[in-house]
Amino acid sequence: MKVNYKTHPILQKIADGKLGVTPVFASDQAFITEGYVNILSESFKRNVSAFRNITYVSKEYYDAAELAAPKLSGLYKDIILNNIDDIIIQGTFMVGSRVFCIKSHIKKDSEFHHSVFFAFHLSGMPIVFYETGMDGREGTFIWVSNCESDAVRKKGIEAVALMAIADVSLIHLFKSYASVETKFVEAKSKIMKGLKKYQNDTSLDITYLTSKWFTNIVRSEGFAVRGHFRLQPKKINGEWTKELIWIKDFEKHGYTHRAQILGNAI
Questions:
Q1: Among 205, 192, 150, 182, which residue's Cα sits nearest to residue 3?
Q2: Domain span at residue 259?
Q3: 91-110 per-position pLDDT tens digit
Q4: Among residues 181, 182, 179, 169, which one has the least CA distance to residue 243?
Q5: Which residues, 6+ apart, have CB-to-CB distance to 49 below 8 Å?
Q6: For 1-40, what is each residue's pLDDT tens digit?
Q7: Disulfide engineering: 214 pairs with which of 51, 64, 149, 264, CB 3.0-4.6 Å?
Q8: For residue 229, how many other CB atoms are within 10 A of its CB?
Q9: Looking at the structure, do residues 30 and 153 belong to the same domain, yes or no?
Q10: Against a cut of 0.70, is the pTM above it?
Q11: 105 backbone dihedrals φ, ψ, rounded to 5°
Q12: Closest-CA residue to 227 (of 244, 215, 243, 212)
């Protein structure tokens, strides 16, 4: 698995600290002629230091996070509605054909919060920009590329932006509350894990979320394995918190390579 400035050109801009010349889809020429590019460029430069925590999200990891979404959504609402804790999400997340840059600070005991979010196509072309609480002011600026399908855009520009932000929040919460495996690859280096090589040719450190702990591999017919996530109360340093664990539902005859996270099942 190799990451460099050709496979993910937006990483070059993060390293440089500015968007610079930004390619756009043909359908987004108004992005340049109407001056939106200047708004995005200024915001990107102002917030880029928060984007330098780079995470590569594998499909297996993302699929597991989606499976856990109902539990994570409930946990997120519980934290917000009951004013339990700050929620701080910031960094860059490489997910499939898109790259998300986010800086979101929601402070408990405060009605004000600042969030800035960018979604880029793998080619570096902007798809979504959202910023609220800019410079301590009220109001929100939203831009969504015309490359999004009509079906998606019918949901409304703000809804499209918020759905993208929810995706990144889901990845962050899953990492925070589940026992996950990560692979850290420093800038300009590579590591071997088993038979797989992880190569990082950029000047930025990258954390890979590539664990398959959340997948049961079925080796023979005649049985099925179903499972579900659960928020398990857990005491850490004398304080109660919650950890997301995977619970095996049932198993029939056959051979299963058990997902490692099943070791937490009770």
A1: 205
A2: 217-264
A3: 999 999 999 999 987 766 65
A4: 179
A5: 17
A6: 899 999 999 999 999 999 988 888 888 887 767 778 888 9
A7: 64
A8: 22
A9: yes
A10: yes
A11: -120, 110
A12: 215
The total of structural domains in the chain comes to: 2
Length of the chain: 266
Helix extents (H) in 134-264: 150-153, 157-177
Task: Indicate whether 146 and 249 sit together in one domain.
Answer: no
Q: Which residues pair with 253 in a beta bridge?
A: none
Kindly tell me the burial class for residue 195, based on how many C-beta atoms sit within 10 Å of its own C-beta (0-12, 13-18, 19 or more): exposed
Residue of 22, 48, 15 lying closest to 201 (CA atoms): 15
Q: Could you tell me the two tokens for 194?
A: 């088993």
Name the token pair of 17. 């600290």
Q: Which two tokens stand for residue 119?
A: 């979604």
Tell me the one-letter amino acid at 104.
S
What is the Cα–Cα distance from 104 to 115, expressed in whole angstroms? Answer: 4
- Cα separation, 31 vs 16, in Å, equals 22
